[in-house]
Amino acid sequence: MYARQGETFELMTREFPFWDATEPVRKIRLVFAGDILVDLVSLDGQEAPGLLRLDPPEIAGIYPAHYEDRILLKGKDLPPVLVDALLAVEDRAFF
Hints:
By secondary structure, the protein is mainly beta. It has a domain at 1-55: Penicillin-binding protein 1b fold. The protein contains 1 helix and 6 strands. It has a 4-stranded antiparallel β-sheet, with no helix packed on it. β3 and β4 (22-23) form a beta hairpin. It is elongated and about 55 Å long.
C-alpha cells in the first residue's frame, strides 16, 4: 500500500522472510529530489532503517491445470551456460 504526493511517497511494507531475518511491517515516508532519495522517515514510531528491504513480487507461476506443465530435463541435458547462471544467482545447494 502506498500514497504519493509529488516526490513524497508513504508506504506500508509487508512482513516477509529474508535470508537473515524476518522483515517486519513498516510505515515509511520516502522523499525524493528528482531520482535521488533525500529522506527516509519512519511513520510508526520506530527508528528509520538505514536499509529498507521490500518483498520481491512474484513474477511467474506454473499452473498445470491451465496446461502449463513443466518439461523435466536431466542435468546432463542442460546447457553449461544455464548451469553457470543458476550457480551464480542461487544457493550452491540448489543445484
